[in-house]
Amino acid sequence: MTELYTAYDHLFHNVKPNAVGGIRIFGKDDPYIKPQKYNDVTNLENSIWAKLFQRLEPVLNQYASKEYLMGLRSLPIPKDRFPLFEEISPIIANSTGWELCPVTGFLDEELFFDLNAARKFPVTDIIRQSPRFEQKYAGVDIQNDEGYTPEPDIFHDIQGHTPFLMNREYADFLARLGAVGQEILRDADGLGPDVVAHNLKRLQNFSWWTYEFGVMQKQPDTDRYRRTANDIDYEIYGAGIVSSYDECLNVTNCAKGKSGFSRFIPFNMEEVVMTRFDYSEIQDRYYVIESMDSLYQAFENHLNLFAFKG
């Protein structure tokens, strides 16, 4: 885990101690594969999914990006019950070459980047506020609210991430990011674990502030895909926002001047890469890209930022 190596943390901004506190993390040596047992899903779990989905859907229709809205329309993601991985995965595979990989929970960076480089996206079959979730974290102080949890659950993984995987450019970008993670971990130059961990943290920072909690400037054509016109200056493309009602509400309230909790900051690749984050809180800032294409280009143009030599 990168958190074990802190020799270069002084170079970062916004350093957060115990950023993943309490979250159980699985690596490649753990039994991380966990096939979905759809027949074991309870009525309570289905009702939790339905409540989460139906509460968020009108918000996302108004504020999510075109890439998300088009992907959501293309996938059999139910509004009233758990999704079935075996129905969703072949459609994504046919569109962009990605497939869903059912896992038991939060994965460490080595395993996560390996899967992404192979165009496999990890998904879990556990949902927030369910007895199974509570049992997994019995005795651990971890946020477990309807609006947000730092543990990726099925709602975050499927409702938040998979619609984006239907977009070819986005899917290629995510696989490229996984390959960069693999390259860092390979440590061909023999930089050592402290430098490797630092470069991985840079990549984690980039991932966090973009495809997890990113927003972009309002695009001129996205309202064509909405029932309700977007009335703020931004669109949401970060899956961590998309899957959290509380985070969506924070974005819209801050954008409308109803709250000053979070800042909207123009995207700067170097700043993003060097800014740490916290899994357990609503974000206090959002980095605003001009467009998805501008994000992909910024990543390719600044790969040197992930090659710190110490």
Question: Helices and strands in order, then pairings?
Answer:
Elements: E1 25-26, H1 43-63, H2 66-74, H3 85-96, E2 99-102, E3 106-107, H4 109-117, E4 120-123, H5 131-136, H6 154-161, H7 168-186, H8 193-212, E5 215-217, E6 234-236, H9 239-242, H10 245-255, E7 263-266, H11 269-273, E8 285-289, H12 292-301
Parallel strand pairs: 1-3, 2-4, 5-8, 7-8
Antiparallel strand pairs: 5-6
Helix pairs in contact: 4-7, 7-8
Describe the protein's architecture and organization.
There is one protein chain. This protein is of the alpha/beta class and 310 residues long. The chain has one domain: Aromatic amino acid hydroxylase (Phenylalanine Hydroxylase, Orthogonal Bundle), CATH 1.10.800.10. The chain has 12 helices and 8 strands. The protein has a 4-stranded mixed β-sheet with strand order 6-5-8-7. Helix 11 (269-273) links the parallel strand 7 and strand 8. The two termini are 19 Å apart. The mean pLDDT is 95.
